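Translate structure to sequence.
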């Protein structure tokens, strides 16, 4: 029976009782209470009692929802930024077609390298002046990781019109070979042979001494080897890098002593790809934005030596 039925029955009872004079006001009130009780009993289970949230609960739910929306917006913005950066870094499609056969070799690559305009620091990214159009985090490249890096573990970087090879705990020699096709180069080629014969020392003291000698410039066989060269479109260059590995004794010293910023970088070596290689590369074009389009090829690769510190030596990079 529906609520309407209960109501109709109650009315009929009241009308009938009144007609025969068998009911008073108190009886009418009792019947009405009974009707209301039946209504409540009929509707029980259909409606649920909802507790009104407190102001604190409402505020907490509001804050949670705001954080969820901000996180989603941040993820969307990050994905969009990564997509845009990948598009800026991408080599020209025409270059990919032109060098298609050359790039079939797994030890080759085609990249764009952008100038370091000083737009990025540890806690700040500038977007004014020249930095307004800068391609961020794209001025240092690791041939070992085949990716861009900005945390000192690069093999090559571009700054102030110079190619610079000065990665963390790595011994590099860089030289210009001239207008030479990459396909014709080997470890016996002029300018490359010296790199293949060079013997980097694993002793920290000797490695630092070698670093300083190379930074000043080494002349051999009509070529000059250094840590940097002026960049020119249409020129080919050769680079030897020895990315030193850690010795266990070095990590033990850090474990018992505590960690400085330099020692954090030393520990990070174990997460990097470290080996010794010779790479030749050609600047096929200098772009209007100051960036370079570079075609490269790896000639040799070998296991890198470990850098060894004497117990009396302070842990440091081989760069002075």
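Result:
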């Amino acid at each position: 029976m529906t609520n309407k039925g209960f109501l109709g029955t109650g009315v009929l009872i009241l009308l009938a009782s009144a007609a025969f004079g068998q009911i008073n006001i108190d009886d009418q009130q009792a019947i009405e209470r009974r009707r209301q009780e039946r209504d409540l009993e009929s509707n029980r289970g259909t409606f649920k009692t909802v507790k009104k949230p407190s102001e604190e609960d409402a505020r907490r739910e509001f804050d949670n929802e705001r954080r969820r929306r901000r996180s989603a917006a941040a993820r969307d913005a990050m994905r969009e930024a990564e997509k845009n950066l990948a598009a800026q870094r991408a080599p020209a499609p025409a270059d990919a077609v032109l060098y298609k056969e050359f790039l079939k070799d797994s030890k080759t690559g085609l990249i764009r390298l952008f100038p370091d305009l000083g737009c990025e620091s540890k806690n700040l990214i500038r977007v004014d002046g020249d930095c307004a159009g800068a391609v961020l985090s794209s001025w240092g490249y690791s041939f070992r990781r085949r990716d861009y890096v900005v945390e000192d573990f690069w093999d090559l970087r571009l700054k102030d019109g110079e190619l610079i090879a000065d990665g963390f705990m790595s011994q590099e020699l860089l030289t210009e070979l001239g207008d030479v096709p990459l396909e014709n180069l080997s470890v016996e080629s002029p300018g490359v042979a010296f790199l293949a014969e060079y013997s980097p020392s694993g002793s920290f003291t000797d490695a630092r001494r070698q670093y300083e000698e190379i930074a000043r410039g080494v002349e051999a066989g009509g070529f000059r080897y250094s840590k940097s060269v002026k960049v020119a479109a249409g020129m080919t260059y050769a680079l030897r890098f020895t990315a030193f590995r850690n010795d266990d004794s070095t990590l033990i010293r850090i474990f018992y002593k505590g960690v400085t910023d330099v020692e954090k970088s030393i520990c990070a070596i174990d997460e990097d790809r470290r080996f010794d290689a010779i790479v030749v590369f050609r600047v096929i074009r200098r772009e209007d934005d100051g960036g370079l389009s570079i075609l490269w090829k790896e000639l040799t690769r070998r296991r890198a030596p470990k850098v060894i510190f004497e117990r009396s030596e302070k842990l440091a990079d081989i760069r002075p």
